[in-house]
Structure formats: structure tokens, C-alpha cells
Specification:
Three copies of one chain form a homotrimer. The first copy, chain A, is an alpha+beta fold. Chain A has two helices and six strands; from the N terminus they run βββαβαββ. In chain A, helix 1 packs across helix 2 (about 85-95). Chain A is globular, with a radius of gyration of 14 Å. Chain A starts with a strand and ends with a strand. The model of chain A has no long low-confidence stretch (mean pLDDT about 95).
Amino acid sequence: MIERFHPEGFPTPPVPLSSATKAGGFVFVSGQVATDRDGKVFLGDFAREVEDTLDNVEACLAAAGARPDQIVKIGAFLSNATLFAPFNEIYRRRFPSAPPARTTVVVAFGHPDVRVEIEAIAYVG
Amino acid sequence: MIERFHPEGFPTPPVPLSSATKAGGFVFVSGQVATDRDGKVFLGDFAREVEDTLDNVEACLAAAGARPDQIVKIGAFLSNATLFAPFNEIYRRRFPSAPPARTTVVVAFGHPDVRVEIEAIAYVG
Amino acid sequence: MIERFHPEGFPTPPVPLSSATKAGGFVFVSGQVATDRDGKVFLGDFAREVEDTLDNVEACLAAAGARPDQIVKIGAFLSNATLFAPFNEIYRRRFPSAPPARTTVVVAFGHPDVRVEIEAIAYVG
């Protein structure tokens, strides 16, 4: 009744969570951050960090059989209010039309180098 | 399969999001803040800011064909712990009985004058 | 169409919310914190605070007829990044296999002594 997914090739999450779950036609994607192949937190260009984070969200969706255009709600978390403008610039390119509903707030993260974390809910019917 | 809504007369969101989405019987409302007619962030009385924010949530719901009593979950974000008491006072008047489930935490926002942001999930069947 | 639940024996929430709501096969549990019998915020050992918080989430689920293994998504909020490691240690024992999707971020709370708050979405079909 509840399915759980982990994208192939993704490092095992260091924390006890499923990358995505599916039930009742909805897919719930855990908060994703940008990591390298070894699962280490990404360090570098913020634009790249946003792209990698969205890539990870899409990989989790794909593992559950969902497409980006099936996302109904995004929860986005940034480490600093100054990041809203560059975040929206990248984000807009990834959702050029018919974007999901979204809430974006500033919080702190478990790792001091993380600047963006993104979770998603998709509807696959 | 997924419908997207923008309340009539609302300023176009300056960020890439749909005000509300509907799928699988649920309506997802993006985090709303209080703004004036031009989309500028509201400045002034906090009680008024809470009322305006809830008005905006209700406008997004209405655009998607949902009523306030169909809200199942509210996510509320405040800029300061001292705002919980006045926030709850207004909020209680808006949901005098059978209130939704709710989570309320303190975060920071993209705009320094925002003191409250509210998102919602409603069920319309 | 929308059902609302309050666990038997729980103190009346000091804020206007339903402990849990159910609609469309999903159960939405309000953000829970650890409290004693009188509804006062728990003070003491962090591991115990996490256990009590998860107990409260489970009590809300049970009131709505849902089991912990039916949770599809957890939202966890911590007051400090240093708490991730001890939080995950307890959490892992509570979800030894097939854990829910999860997002965990650092925020502040309405009460200065709260160190963890947890909300949940479950699917009961």
C-alpha cells in the first residue's frame, strides 16, 4: 500500500529515511541537498548547487515513476535571504511554465555548507 | 490531471510558482504573505498582516474551488517567537471551531518586513 | 468528508488546531512537541524529548486509526544543528526499516525550551 524508493546509484542516505514514498497516487520526496558521488555535501558555485539539488529531486521522482511536471508542491529552504534572487533565477529555468505551488523560507541545516534543500510532492494518479 | 490556479485580481507572483495546484482531490496553496494591491509587502499592524495573509490563503483556495473549512493542514511561519500569542489570537477567530492540523515554527523570510507566511492543504474530494 | 481527531487523555492544545485530520485516505498530524501530563513543555534529557515527541505523533496517528508504518512523510524541526546526530540515533531505533520520507531543518520554536518538533502525513487508504 505504501511503496518506498531509492534512486539507483545514489549513495545510501546517512540518515534513516526513504528518498521517496508513494501512496494514494501521491509521491513524497525527502528534502534533497546537493552532494557529490560519495554523498559528500557539495562545495562551490550556488547556481550549480541549486541545479544539483533539483537534479536529486528529479532522480527521486523518477525512481517512483513520477515526472517533474507532476509536482504539485515544492518546499524550498535557503540558508540566507540573499539567496532568493539567484535561487529563483535557476528555479525559473527549471519550471519555465506551469510551476508547482511553493513555499520558500530561510532556515539552518544540519551541515554548515548546505545553502539549499528542496522537498516535493507529486501526483501520479 | 494537475490543475493550477491564480486568484483573479492578484498581482502576478514575482517568483515562479502557482498560487494553488489541485490533484487527487487535494488543493495545495503556496506560502502566502500579506501584500497590498501592487504586490508590495504589507507594512503596519501585525494583526492586520495576519488577517491579510489568511485572506490571501482563502483567495487561493477559492480560485481552486475550495472553502476554508476544507483545509486539512496549515503550515505557519513566523519571524519571531514573540508573535505566537498575537498570531494565535487572530487565527482562533478565523477558525472558531474544527480547526485544521497545524505546524508553526520560527524562520526568516526573503523580505525583511514579512512577519508571517501561511501555506495550506485542503481536501475537496 | 474531513475528520478531526484529538488523542484521548491529551491535554487540550493551547493553540487552535486539531491534533490530526483525515481526508482522502491521508492523515495529517500537527507538529508535536514533548509535554508532560499537564501540557507543560518537557525539560530534560534530549533523547527522552525525542521519544516523547514521537510517542505524541503516534498517539495522534492512533486517534485517527493510523499506524506508524503508514507514515509516508515526516517533517522534523530541530532547534540546533548539533542535535541532528542524537536525533537520528533515536529516530533510527523507532523506524528500524522502511522509514518514511523526511525533511529535517533547524528553526526556532514558540517556546524557548523546545528542541524538537515533528509533524507527519500517513496514508490509511
